[in-house]
What we know:
It contains three helices and 13 strands, in the order βββαββββββαββββα. The protein has helices spanning 35-45, 162-172, 269-296, and strands at 4-8, 14-21, 24-28, 51-53, 66-68, 101-104, 131-135, 141-148, 151-155, 177-181, 193-199, 211-214, 227-230. The strands form two sheets. Strands 7, 8, 9, 10, 11, 12 and 13 form a seven-stranded mixed beta sheet that branches. A hairpin with a 5-residue loop joins strand 1 (4-8) and strand 2 (14-21). This is WC11 protein.
Amino acid sequence: EFMALRLLNGTNCSGRLQVFYNGTWGSVCSNSMTPETLSLACKELGCGDRGSLEARQPYGRLSGTAWLDRVECGERNSSFWQCPSAPWDPQSCHDLRDETHITCEGSQPETPPAPTAACPSTPSCTEREKIRAVGGEKGCSGRVEVWHRGSWGTVCDDSWDMRDAEVACRQLGCGPAVSALAEAAFGEGSGPVWLERVECRGTEPSLQDCWARPGDSGACRHKEDAAVNCSGIGCAGPSPLPGLVLPFLSSCHAGPTRGRPTGSGRVSLPVVICIVLGALLCLLLALLAGRVGSARA
């Protein structure tokens, strides 16, 4: 279910521990929390080998999801995901005092800031404005960049596919995706790589709602920047034959296709022309056969 950990509403390597499961982020309860559990959680987060529990929050009813309780890691467990726990349950914690707030001894590497933009720094900025396509035409094709921590950054092409591209194109307001491109097809970006191994189901409203690994660890380089070609809105390309309407052959599809496409799910123009010409040829042969039969009679 694309599980991952994060620390929320805290500073670098400290905050409320949450787990991503079944498409939703939820809290981890602190009941039966062992030192080994804290250690493995910090390792998973890239924040050192040790951690400590922070003071529990004041009493109050938990309003969000809480996935895990009684996570009891031991010396034999080498990963947080191998530790025994209570069954997955979105109502694991009863109140705010049960949520896990931890502080790890390490710190995540700082990412150098990239040039800032006006819109995403304002409180009224929408999710649609926190993504852009750079290097293509009309903002509907190009290198995918997202706004995070006050700067624009790119998306790594690891596991980048049509489901991810569908979400990106929908978030851009550019209609269905035509292709998902990799290997910096629209040129290499600059600044941080914010997302790695994006795993969208295709129905999310934005890339920020998809599961992904934080990409600021330096494992992915800009030569692996992901890109998209979107169909655009209200675009219709020329038909190869008079009177034949092919709305999916859009002029908005044009754009560089360097790199390895990860699948488009579309029919190319040469294939369509072959199909049409083949159908016409079959019709012509049928008419000729009819005439031959009439002449013999």
